[in-house]
Hints:
By secondary structure, the chain is an all-beta fold. It has one domain (5-135). 0% of the residues lie in helices and 43% in strands. Strand 1 and strand 2 (16-21) form a beta hairpin.
Amino acid sequence: xxxxxxxxxxxxxxxxxxxxxxxxxxxxxxxxxxxxxxxxxxxxxxxxxxxxxxxxxxxxxxxxxxxxxxxxxxxxxxxxxxxxxxxxxxxxxxxxxxxxxxxxxxxxxxxxxxxxxxxxxxxxxxxxxxxxxxxxxxxxxxxx
Length: 144
């Protein structure tokens, strides 16, 4: 059995669903979300269409930690892999991260968050949800 990942899925219309995924194809048109980590077919939560999604957050826990605020900015001394970018979605939300894709997928790209200790391990950004991507030099950072 393949490893199971915990994910939080954000739709373009603002809806949020949480669940588990056993296989993620970044070039696929559909995402199969499960209600439990076992992956049994009767536990299928939904088949989500990528064209309806904004981003997929691969997380440590589905509940998160309401008392912890993950750092959203890079700071001096951060190690980053790939290009540091700021992504602006069509709805105006902005996230930052290190774009790590070795292969340019047509449906989207992966970001590592600025805070490696936060709940989000990695984000898959759906390209059609993006309004703008700004690249900035590794030396450009913010205070914590």
